[in-house]
Amino acid sequence: MKKRFYGVFSIVSGVLALIAALSAGCACGFYYYQPKVPKCLSENK
Fold it and tell me: What domain of life is recorded for the organism (predicted)?
């Protein structure tokens, strides 16, 4: 039972991490392509 729970938990956390990475990448690209707001690049320093 515990093994199955850990498997589901790892899958869910993996999906959440992927979504977070994608949304961060989209926001980063969005700010990067707007010359007025290079927010992402300045925050990452």
Answer: Bacteria
